[in-house]
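User: Sequence in, structure out. Go.
Assistant: Echoing your sequence, followed by the structure tokens.
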Amino acid sequence: MNKINTNHAPAAIGPYSQAYKVGDIIYTSGQLPVDPLNDSMADTIKEQAEQSCKNVLAILEAAGSDSSLVFKTTCFLADITDFAAFNDVYQKYFTSHPARSCFAVKDLPKGALCEIEVIAKEK
């Protein structure tokens, strides 16, 4: 097992890692829409979805992968009525249409509107 860490995605806010590579499979932790440069979050679901996707991609790059090799995503929404707006952004990043679960949760850390975790294959 190899721990993956990059400064191009937000640092973990608890006792966990950004990702692990086990063999040629990468498992990311959930990525909040936090901008790693200034630790801020945008206000809208589309902006937040964009940042969560960018954070996932930064971790995948650090692990030797990319979005085309993602085969499973789990997406969390603070409000299921954001589903369509979230999808508008998500589909730009995950064009290979990985298997996905997406559901609403009561709350997300830091008051985020979305969070994304992925499982991908190494290049």
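User: And one key feature?
Assistant: The beta strands are 2-4, 19-22, 25-28, 70-77, 99-104, 114-121.
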